[in-house]
Write a structure and sequence with these properties.
By secondary structure, the chain is an all-alpha fold. Helices cover about 70% and strands about 0% of the residues.
């Protein structure tokens, strides 16, 4: 048979296809019929691709139908044929179909259906060679069409996928996502998202036969979940109502994935929802009316971030609450922004115990609060009081000092209409100096030296910043006194020498001198500082 296929020309095979295929089921079981038929289909598909004018002949002789029927008869005639042989025949037929009839999705689905029929009753395929052939079968349409949307139209595609074991199912899910990324395929409806997540469910939740999440390799798990996180940004639709349906569908699936996956999958979902709320906010006439409103999306965001409590991931949740607060500020919805800040403070109080994490968290809270303009006097005072209070309660004196002087920016915001409370700025800076003094004394007691004067130089730079911005409470006399204090500290017998602090202080003094020489209104202000 192999000789016949190799010797006779392609057009001859095409015209005598029925006769040639009729002999295949009658061959002895010892004949490698899989290779014979695969070579025949490869020759015919090469013939079609090299000579497009012969395509009518393929249609006339019904090549696909005859090949498909012949494969079914061969498999029935050889009940002992290994599973890998039967699947490889379907792979060859699918390759032939994709090359000769790429526009016939019904043919592609028919081949997959025949494979499903062969696999029915066999459960999960565990033989490695057979699973490789199934992966090849499922990968072929993706490689041909470069579009996962096409695969989603094939009703038998997920049915074949069901027969892969857990590990191979995850590999195939990764291939599908990589195809979406490579071809920048956008999934634009909630129904398509449902169908896609059914294909990649091995990555987004625990399926039958899966090991427990704790048994998975940490690096592999992170890589897989980062891939899923990237996928979220490919689920888009310009229509706000449909987009809201998409993110609702995504959340439903993600929440079924268990707590360990949430720290990877919730952040991109939150940012996708924030993108939607900002799109709504920029559109004229949108807002409180219509099926999707900013308030409805903020409710969605609150529930989504709240899910991180099961992980638990308080630091991540705090960051996301602050992002949501900024979005609520942009939408000018004060109660919502206040609620998100409240949740952030609750997490800080109850969940974040690590001292380094507390330092990072309080700086994030202060930085976000500084940018918020929607709050009225009462709400703003409540939150700034909380922020300054927690800043002064950090474990290390050095961290306390830095957080407190950063809080001074909460009382002097340069934006139009921003708060400008010079007295409270000065109170923050004076408090920071007291804490820095306490830190120096503590260092003197424990280490025998007062340590570098870094904190004082940093506070001096804050004084200069507010001095330039026109805060009437920050006077040249206060700056001069602080400079003298720093000079005294650095010349003290107990002071430890640090070249970087010396350079920092010298650079600050040079800046003051530079402003004096520069002249103008600012230069005149600096002339009053005797450094």
């Amino acid at each position: 048979m192999d000789c016949i296929i190799q010797v006779f020309p392609d057009d001859y095979h095409l015209q005598t296809l029925e006769t040639l295929l009729g002999a295949c089921p009658q061959l002895q079981p010892t004949v490698d019929i899989k290779t014979v038929m695969s070579q025949l289909m490869e020759r015919l598909s090469n013939y079609a691709s090299l000579s497009p004018e012969v395509m009518p002949e393929f249609l006339q002789v019904e090549a696909f139908t005859k090949l498909s029927s012949a494969i079914v008869r061969v498999i029935e005639a050889q009940p002992d044929m290994p599973l890998v042989g039967a699947i490889s025949l379907h792979v060859s037929l699918l390759t032939f179909t994709l090359r000769v009839h790429p526009d016939r999705l019904d043919y592609v689905d028919q081949v997959l259906g025949a494979c499903v029929k062969k696999l029915s009753g066999k459960g999960k395929v565990e033989e490695s060679k057979a699973t490789k052939q199934i992966v090849a079968l499922l990968s072929a349409p993706l490689e041909k069409y470069n579009d996962v949307m096409t695969a989603l139209k094939l009703t038998n595609y997920p049915k074949v996928l069901e027969h892969l074991d857990y590990a191979t199912n995850k590999v195939m899910a990764g291939v599908i996502i990589q195809s979406i990324m490579k071809n920048t395929t956008c999934i634009s409806t909630a129904d398509k998202v449902e169908a896609l997540f059914e294909l990649i469910k091995g990555l987004i939740k625990d399926i039958t036969g899966a090991p427990s999440v704790d048994e998975l390799d940490e690096e592999d798990f992170k890589e897989e979940q980062n891939l899923v996180a990237r996928l979220v940004h490919m689920l888009v639709n310009e229509d706000q109502e449909e987009m809201f349906k998409i993110i609702t569908t995504v959340r439903k699936h993600f929440l079924q994935g268990g707590p360990r996956r949430l720290s990877f999958t919730v952040p991109p979902l939150v940012f996708s929802a924030l993108k939607l709320v900002r799109a709504l906010q920029t559109q004229e006439g949108e807002g409180e009316e219509g099926p999707v409103t900013p308030k409805k999306i903020f409710q969605f965001l609150h529930q989504t971030v709240e899910a991180l409590a099961t992980v638990p991931a308080p630091e991540l949740a705090l960051r996301l609450y602050l992002q949501c607060a900024e979005a609520a500020n942009d939408c000018d919805i004060e109660p919502v922004a206040y609620e998100f800040f409240t949740q952030a403070f609750i997490l800080y109080e109850e969940e974040i115990a690590d001292s380094k994490a507390q330092v990072t968290a309080i700086h994030l809270i202060i930085g976000t609060l500084q940018r918020i303009t929607v709050f009225g006097v009462e709400n703003r005072d409540t939150l700034t009081h909380k922020a300054t209070g927690y800043s002064a309660k950090l474990l290390k004196k050095q961290d306390q000092c830095k957080a407190v002087y950063v809080c001074s920016h909460l009382f002097w915001v340069e934006d139009e209409g921003g708060v400008k409370d010079g007295e409270r700025v000065l109170l923050c800076l004076k408090r920071a100096i007291r804490i820095a003094n306490a830190a120096q004394q503590m260092a003197n007691v424990t280490r025998g030296n007062s340590g570098p004067a870094t904190l004082f130089v940093e506070i001096l730079n804050k004084y200069l910043y507010f001095f330039e911005k026109g805060n009437p409470q920050i006077t040249s006399n206060l700056i001069r006194d602080l400079i003298e204090l720093i000079a005294t500290e650095m010349q003290s017998e107990n002071a430890s020498q640090d070249p970087s602090v010396d350079a920092f202080f010298a650079s600050t003094l040079r800046y003051i001198q530079f402003q004096k020489q520069k002249g103008g209104a600012l230069g005149e202000k600096y002339d009053a500082i005797q450094a």
